[in-house]
Amino acid sequence: MRTHNSGKSSLGALVMAPIHFLMGILDAPLRWLQRATGIGGMAAFFLMPNMLIFCIFVLLPFFINFAYSMTGGTALFLPDRTFVGAGQYARLFDCRSYLDPGSCAEDTFWTAVKNTAWFVVLQVTLMILVSLVTALILNRDLAARSFWRAVFFFPVLLSPVVVGLIWKWILQRQGLLNFGLYGLGFDPHVWLNDRNWAFAATIGVSIWAHMGFYTLILLAGLQAIPKDLYEAAEMDGTRPARAFWRITLPLLMPNLLVVVVLVLIRAVQIFDEVYVLTGGGPGTSTLYLTQYIYETGFAAQLRNPGLAAAASILMGAVLVVLTLLQLGLGRSEKKGGRK
């Protein structure tokens, strides 16, 4: 036993030797930096790599995208493009009636906006309800509870492309769903060629693919609620429904607010699985805003990167406004609860 332990310790010392050597080299400069700049300077020093990555991969692309939105033409590289000012934004907002996409100069853009708005309203509402109900069920004392938690979380691990291909195989004319219906005596239906069913399919597939992640967040919030509160409520004769509204929901609100923000951002940016599943069809019934931006900037025969950039800037602005509104509502509710 001693030989085995000594072998382990010698191997650990061998592995740690280069790390100790490196830390010995860095020790003197870091101590000098701490004396020169203080604790605040050391914090800035350690944050600098992350801030550099943020600037390179977030801020710089944002400013480049904004610059593209002020240019026109079909050229890809920015120096080859013509400055048009706010012309691209004016083109997007050139409408007689914003409720009628057909009256707009960019009717496809407003069709995508309309589809995205309906998708966000329905998908966010259903996602939150389904995730909350699933979290409440998984929080109970169930047989094989860990197994069921893993089952609900598994789709989150799949690539969006894989999710789209799986459900396309299920919903196509010769797919698994029609095979089951035919076995039960029903006529097969071309689900993805029907405008209403295709739209409903994008909502259902999105919920199936991502609900496990949001369920996990809500489940963590439920497990953090002290059980003593429920025991005291039960002793007072409180009904389960009243306990949910008076205890569970208020204490779960911080987690629920996080879920609402994350679901909303992802719903507005929906693209991968829908593009694989329906390609935006039939017609433009499942054409959402991110797909419009992609096709306008990269996939169209006469691509217009400036118009695509302007649409993406507008989408980002809407996301920022909606997120700030939700955070503001969450803070106001928290202050009201404290009072």
Description:
The protein is an all-alpha fold. The chain is built from twelve helices and two strands, in the order H-E-E-H-H-H-H-H-H-H-H-H-H-H. The radius of gyration is 27 Å and the shape is globular.
- The helix/strand series, from N terminus to C terminus, equals HEEHHHHHHHHHHH
Going across the major beta sheet, what is the strand order?
1-2
The low-confidence parts are none
Number of continuous helical runs: 12
Radius of gyration using CA atoms only: 27 Å
Shape: globular
How much helix is in the residues?
over 70%
Instruction: Tell me the total number of β-strands.
Output: 2
The average pLDDT value, as a whole number, equals 87
Distance between the termini: 63 Å
The biggest beta sheet reads:
2 strands, antiparallel
Strand proportion? under 5%
Give the structural class.
mainly alpha
Topology diagram in text:
Layout lengths: L1 H68 L1 E2 L9 E2 L3 H6 L14 H32 L6 H9 L6 H12 L4 H8 L11 H29 L3 H9 L4 H29 L3 H6 L11 H11 L5 H34 L1
Antiparallel strand pairs: 1-2
Helix pairs in contact: 1-12, 3-7, 3-9, 3-11, 7-9, 9-12, 11-12
Relevant terms:
339 residues, mainly alpha, two-stranded antiparallel ribbon, 2 strands, 1% strand
Summarize the structure.
This protein is an all-alpha fold. It has helices spanning 2-69, 87-92, 107-138, 145-153, 160-171, 176-183, 195-223, 227-235, 240-268, 272-277, 289-299, 305-338; strands at 71-72, 82-83.
